[in-house]
Amino acid sequence: QVQLVESGGGLAQAGGSLRLSCAASGRTFRSYTMGWFRQAPGKEREFVAAITWSAGSTHYADSVKGRFTISRDNAKNTVNLQMNSLKPEDTAVYYCAARVGVTTIRNEYGYDYWGQGTQVTVSS
After folding, report:
1. I need a labelling partner for 96 at 20 to 30 A (CA). Which of 15, 50, 52, 107 fits?
2. d(CA 50, CA 69)
3. Where does residue 94 rank: exposed (0-12), middle (13-18), buried (19+ CB within 10 A)?
């Protein structure tokens, strides 16, 4: 069982930065692939980024590639999402998620555990 708690959301201006963190409980954190997803009002939840258990591989949605960076610290049971050059269209609730394995890593249905979400609002 893994419990996830996100933090770091808030309000930013376009072009600014925010850093999201996800704290995970559970001794097996290091064995999980970790992902970030987001859901804007009236839209479906979408993949943002993911990182494999060893941090040997990262994956990004095209819309955030080059602006967002995902990282993890297995010693601290945390995964982070550094968001730079923010745009108004990045406004959404951001969710941290965990899963075993890496197949279909961008598919939300492959993730077993979810955090409660944190709001990110980017003003123009």
Report:
1. 15
2. 10
3. buried
